[in-house]
Amino acid sequence: MKCIVAVTERLILRQMTKSDFDHLKEIFSDKETMKYYPSTKNDEDTKEWIYWTEENYRKFDIGLWIAEDKETGEFYGQCGIVPQKIKDKVEMEIGYLFKKTVWGRGYATEAALACRDLGILHLDFPKIISLIDPRNIPSIKVAERMGMKYEKNIFRWNKHLSIYSIEGPRASELLMLQE
Predict the structure, then answer these.
(1) Among candidate residues 70, 61, 151, the one with its CA nearest the CA of residue 110
(2) Kind of pairing between the strands at 127-132 and 89-98
(3) Measuring CA to CA, how many Å separate 139 from each of 46, 126, 178?
């Protein structure tokens, strides 16, 4: 049985399992989809990704979740919250990656907003970040739609990244962001 984490207007976010391998490999092997990542991923990398995600569930009760169509169950991508060590501090990051056939339809924003609300309103994270390649304008727009603001640049995974962040506002402020 697959564990549902969140339900939005159009999406279900659920825990990732080994059975998601083929769908994830579709994204990870696509050069355009992985343009802002260090590289595409092969079969072994994809298996390691699933293992890393399952470990995050076990250790932290969070991780990347599969985003699928609420009505049809069609796989769209992944979105979730993962711990990232930035300098000497652990920050909670919302990450998202969707297959290109669904780009431009608002699914990444919808899933990311659900993760933001889960992290801030239910898990009481004081701050959430997103690490984004500064050339990745669509991902920056998703972060901004979540109410995130540019914080600073860092060098990580052999590349320059921008940190966008939002601090845990009260629930009423989050609701105002969505209006």
Answers:
(1) 70
(2) parallel
(3) 22, 22, 18
CA proximity to 77, closest of 137, 153, 11: 11
Its sign, for the CA torsion 85, 88, 91, 93, is negative
69-101 CB burial, b ≥16 within 10 A, e <16: eeeeeebbbbbbbbebeeeeeebbbbbbbbbee
Give the SS3 label for residue 65: strand
117: tokens are 């609300």
| Average pLDDT for 27-39 | 93
Would you call 106 helix, strand, or coil by DSSP? Answer: coil
SS3 category, 119: helix
Say what the pTM is: 0.90
- Note the pLDDT tens digit of each residue in 77-91: 999 999 999 988 999
Provide the domain count of the chain: 1
Identify the CA nearest to 5 among candidates 83, 93, 81: 81
Residue whose entry in the numeric block shows the structure tokens 């769908």: 23
Cβ-based neighbour number of residue 107 at 10 Å = 23
Which residue range forms the structural domain that includes residue 76?
A: 4-178
Which CATH number does the domain housing residue 43 bear?
A: 3.40.630.30
Tokens 């500064």 correspond to what residue? Answer: 134
